UniProtKB/TrEMBL annotation, chains A, B:
It comes from the Bacteria. Gene3D superfamilies: Chorismate lyase-like, Winged helix-like DNA-binding domain superfamily/Winged helix DNA-binding domain. Keywords: DNA-binding, Transcription, Transcription regulation. This is GntR family transcriptional regulator. One of its GO terms (biological process) is negative regulation of DNA-templated transcription. PANTHER family: GNTR-FAMILY TRANSCRIPTIONAL REGULATOR (PTHR44846:SF17), MANNOSYL-D-GLYCERATE TRANSPORT/METABOLISM SYSTEM REPRESSOR MNGR-RELATED (PTHR44846).
DNA sequence: GAGTGGTCTAGACCACGGG
DNA sequence: CCGTGGTCTAGACCACTCA
């Protein structure tokens, strides 16, 4: 008896490091500032570089830091709020300024999308690639899947090039009456193509927003949008597209 | 000349590993099955354990695997869709079956919440802790912040114990006419208390849903709900709370 | 070419769960 | 107790950016 053994929970080093760094970021650094490099930080805290990196990874995941190979680690600006699923009854691309059509093809969608579209697994559909930027930074890459039935007049006006074709598909889509939409958000990791468009490395954490558009009692289109999880806060609600809040918002510690 | 140098992109080992494992999961394993332990897997693939772990981490992030210390690595079931922000005009706790009141206190909210509430930084508010489970598994932990003005009759009926007090606050809230709500989703990492409630380690990836409830042209309450990012898919839309889809949904490879 | 973050190794020990 | 995943180390080399 006597060995009361308080504090039986030895906090992992990287967790403690993260806390210390987080407080230092709040008090001693300003947005955009470059931190000392990893080798020096590790030495300064008396830990192995791998351990320090574990702490940095967490802070990057939380949107506090931004790391770039060959450049360094900088203090990230607060996450930007991006409106998602506003304009409940507007088709994508209707007078859109935030999304830029990039390309368009005809191909067989991945199985999960085919299921959501309720078409057969091997049915060809139109695809439209779009990218979204805010404040000059890429924040999202989207792939929109449109079954041929949803744009019956398209083949007649077959346009050759990528972006123009994309716009044509979006234009045809406006002819349908949109009845509703359903969205889901989940965590994913960036595929190689998305990563490139988002200016991140493959495997970077992303928020995947899957939306089903309903028209004529059918699923008229499916969109899979990939948002940078480190820089974005997705906003929903009755705001009509207005961003909820701006400023130094931080989660409770 | 002659050294045409195709494939100048040496794919990282862990990335390739992830792909190989992912395909193996699809074809050779079924949900709940236990994988060989990390040391054996690493040996089998001829890589260091740390490298293998990097691949496993990614797969866990994508909800394909579940790892538990002292137990092993198992194949995760498909993510469960949880409805968020349905019933646009219902207060939290109105005949709720998915959320369980846990506790309630009076305290000063964190700065970010105080800002969202538009109360002063040091104003005391009621807090209500709730937890959400699906299929017997904990999926979310919520902290609801309610300024005293929103529940003016509460002090008179001061109830002592935690869960009962939580229910009392929620009941008082129903008296207000809810005008709308705004939600935002972002990636975070679980704090120690949330992690415990979610049966995860601290730092585990979570989807943080911040909701502002409006009544009487004011922000009447703010909710910060923390969902397990590995097991959850958050659904929004005109579904009235019905889950969007069930089944073997997988993102495009 | 110098300096950064990204990948990888081969070890060690620890915390936890279950028999 | 044993086996599991979680943490940590001290190195090495690679890929990228920029002057």
């Amino acid at each position: 008896m006597g060995t009361t053994q308080l504090e039986t929970v030895p906090e992992p080093k990287y967790w403690h490091l993260k806390t210390v760094l987080s407080e230092a970021l709040d008090s001693e650094f300003s947005v955009g500032e470059i931190l000392p490099n990893e080798r020096e930080l590790a030495a300064r805290f008396g830990v192995a570089r791998a351990t320090l990196r574990q702490a940095l990874e967490q802070l990057e995941l939380e949107g506090r830091l931004q790391r770039r190979r060959g450049v360094g680690t900088t203090v990230a600006p607060p996450r930007v709020g991006v409106a998602v699923g506003a304009e409940q009854h507007a088709w994508p691309g209707a007078g859109d300024t935030v999304w830029q059509p990039v390309d368009s093809t005809v191909e067989a969608p991945p199985a999960a999308v085919a299921d959501a579209l309720e078409t057969g697994r091997n049915t060809l559909v139109h695809t439209v690639r779009r990218s979204r930027t805010t404040h000059g930074q890429p924040v999202a890459a989207e792939l929109l899947y449109v079954p041929g039935q949803s744009v019956p007049d398209l083949p007649a006006i077959e346009t050759p090039t990528g972006a123009a074709r994309a716009r044509a598909v979006l234009r045809e889509l406006q002819h349908l009456e949109l009845e509703g939409r359903e969205s889901a958000v989940e965590l994913g990791s960036a595929r190689a193509d998305d990563a490139k468009e988002l200016d991140r490395l493959p495997g970077a954490p992303v928020l995947v927003v899957t939306t089903r558009f309903f028209a004529g009692r059918r699923v008229a289109a499916v969109s899979v949008a990939t948002y940078r999880a480190d820089t974005c806060r997705l906003t929903f609600g009755d705001t009509g597209g207005v961003e909820i809040h701006e400023g130094p918002e931080r989660r409770a510690s």
